[in-house]
Structure formats: structure tokens, C-alpha cells
Amino acid sequence: MPVNLQLPRTKLLSTCVKVIDTFDPKKTTVDAYIQDSEVLKDKSIGEIELKFIHQVFYGCIRYQKFLKLFVTSFLYKCPTAAVRSEQTLYMILSYMLFFRLEELG
């Protein structure tokens, strides 16, 4: 069932990357960060997109060890195709692949 999004999917993924990249577990907790994140205060982010970003953020933090292991293996296995600076994007995509594939359709 297609969902009408206010943001294009590329902007939605880049927002997820920004949220994960700017999170510092030494400074704040996961819940406090989500409530105070400057990235999520953008008015163009709708309710559905906000919920998606929250779920992706929580999932990537929860399964961080596994996802980092997978992304590191991927970067090692495919060094010519994979860009090391896009590790967070690979982590988000692998989270969606392993844990949310049924919901993507």
C-alpha cells in the first residue's frame, strides 16, 4: 500500500543518516536525543516520516554491533564499489534489509 510522503525518499534517507551521525551516546540518551535533535525540528518532516526516522534510528542503535560488523565486511569485500564515507547509509539500508524487509513490500 503506497504511502504519500511529504519528503522525497532520498531526503528521508539523508535525514536518517544525519540523525544517526549526529548522535553521541556519551552526551545524551537515545530518547533524549530524539526529542531534542535539531535535524528533526524541520517543519517539512511529516508525521509519517518522523515515525520512520524514529524507528530507523532506534533500530540502528539497537542492532549497532551486528550492522557495523556487516557494513565493515561489506566494505572489505567490495572496496571498489563501496564508499567508506557512506557507512551510515549502508548501515541504514542493511537494517531495513535484515529487519524491515516485509514492511517495505
List the helices and strands and how they pair.
Layout: H1 9-22, H2 30-36, H3 47-62, H4 64-77, H5 87-99, H6 101-104
Helix pairs in contact: 1-3, 3-5, 4-5
Tell me what you see in this structure.
With about 100 residues, this protein is mostly helical. The protein contains 6 helices and no strands. Helix 1 crosses helix 3 (about 45-60), helix 3 packs across helix 5 (about 85-100) and helix 4 (about 65-75) packs across helix 5 (about 85-100). The longest helix has 16 residues, at about 45-60. The termini are close together.
In short:
With about 100 residues, this protein is mainly alpha-helical.
What keyword list fits this structure?
105 residues; 6 helices
Q: Report the helical percentage.
A: 55-70%
Strand residue content = under 5%
SS-derived structural category: mainly alpha
Coarse morphology: globular
Count of distinct strands? 0
**Arithmetic mean pLDDT:** 91
Q: What summary fits the major beta sheet?
A: none
Please trace the helix and strand order, writing H or E for each element. Answer: HHHHHH
Distance between the termini: 8 Å
Q: Which runs of at least 5 residues are low in confidence (pLDDT < 50)? A: none
Radius of gyration: 14 Å
Number of helices: 6
